[in-house]
Write a structure and sequence with these properties.
The protein is of the alpha/beta class. The relative contact order is 0.21. Helix content is 20%, strand content 38%. The chain has one domain. The longest helix is centred in the middle third of the chain and has 15 residues. It has 2 helices and 9 strands; from the N terminus they run ββββββαβαββ.
């Protein structure tokens, strides 16, 4: 994954919390593995040069995680994550990706979200998850 050293942080905390306003995601790291956390918005990608998500997480060479902490515009969050994958991923098709949107609006599993999930699976080898206010994911299950 392309990044900049000044935008990266290696962490081995048991819990890695990313938060913006009321949206929050916690990545559980029970094995205390070294996890690369990358601040994408405002660091790797600055200004108005391109759409981008808030964070990228790299728990290992085989997995890339993209995170957007959002107010209410889920459709825009989808575009931000898609753009970030195209800009930063080493291999947008082969490397497994996990995409998370945590919004302040209650998302419903509508057909549009299901379509996005299907498109991301085909186009990027990515799972796509939308949650309200907070989410939690166990990184030890990322590589299976």
């Amino acid at each position: 994954m392309r990044s900049l050293p000044e935008c990266e942080e290696c962490r081995s905390d048991k819990k890695i919390v990313l938060q913006e306003n009321k949206s929050k995601i916690t990545f559980l790291n029970p094995n205390r593995n070294e996890i690369l956390t990358i601040k994408v918005d405002g660091c790797v990608i600055k200004g108005n040069e391109s759409l981008r998500c808030d964070y990228a997480i790299v728990p290992c060479d085989e997995v890339e995680i993209y995170v957007e902490l959002k107010g209410s515009d889920i459709a825009y969050a989808v575009k931000q994550i898609e753009s970030t994958i195209c800009l930063l991923s080493d291999d947008s098709q082969k490397i497994k990706k996990l995409c998370f949107v945590v919004s302040t609006q209650v998302p419903r599993l509508t057909t549009s979200i299901q379509q996005v999930q299907s498109q991301f699976k085909k186009k990027f080898n990515a799972s796509f998850r939308v949650k309200n206010l907070q989410d939690e994911y166990d990184l030890s299950t990322a590589v299976t």
